[in-house]
Write a structure and sequence with these properties.
The protein is α+β, with helices and mostly antiparallel strands and about 150 residues long. The protein is built from 3 helices and 5 strands. This is Glyoxalase-related protein domain-containing protein.
Length: about 150
């Protein structure tokens, strides 16, 4: 198991097993010393370094799309094709802020007598490319075809 796939719980469990084994062998070690030894055994400088890396990997899911990618989907019920201009993970959540530039402007108004075209939009999406916000008819604002 690589350092990138270890969780903090797994690392702490390794430290407990190491502490128990060393105590059983007549060399008692504190839990904090065991944590430091586990960190070094995985090539990290210290416990703080490896726990920061493990915390990131615990919460990190791959982004649903990449900046520069050409995507298609639905925005406010209208089909689109466009390019991802920016994508950033929203702090401490599983959501992303995404800015898209549509190849062709999309009419975001459903009235026959009125139109409002958008070519560049910013929205929030989850890891599956779906907006958590919905229109009054229950459809997500944005759905990417992934």
């Amino acid at each position: 198991m690589s350092m990138a796939t270890l969780t903090i719980d797994e690392l702490k469990s390794q430290a407990r097993r190491l502490r128990d084994a060393m105590s059983g062998g007549g060399t008692p070690v504190t839990h904090s010393a065991a944590l430091e030894l586990v960190a070094k055994s995985h090539g990290a400088r210290d416990w703080n370094t490896i726990s920061a890396l493990a915390a990131r990997s615990d919460n990190a899911e791959p982004a649903p799309v990449a900046v520069g990618a050409v995507v298609s989907g639905e925005y406010l019920g209208q089909r689109f094709r466009g390019k991802v201009l920016s994508l950033s993970r929203l702090s401490q959540s599983s959501y992303y802020a995404i800015t898209l530039h549509f190849d062709d402007p999309v009419d975001v108004v459903t009235f026959d007598s009125f139109s409002a075209f958008r070519q560049r939009v910013t929205a929030t999406i989850d890891g599956k490319g779906v907006s958590p916000r919905h229109t009054s008819n229950g459809r997500p604002h944005l759905v990417l075809d992934l």
